Amino acid sequence: MQLPFLVLLIFPGILARDVFPDLEYPDLAWPSLIFEYMPVGVRGLIVAALLAALMSSLDSVLNGAFSPCRQ
Description:
Blueprint: H1 2-19, H2 29-37, H3 40-66
Helix pairs in contact: 1-2
């Protein structure tokens, strides 16, 4: 069950290293692949998913920080 996730996480990094060999910052490998090879509609879905994940994480942090202490 873990093998497909491993391939999905590592394959884009290996692909980006081969496609963009002169990339200055390795952190830009995934965004470079997305903006270079994905159509506009798929880019919108990816941005929407990233914003939803960010909002969910922020909501969890704020809920944990400001919830009243219960004993």
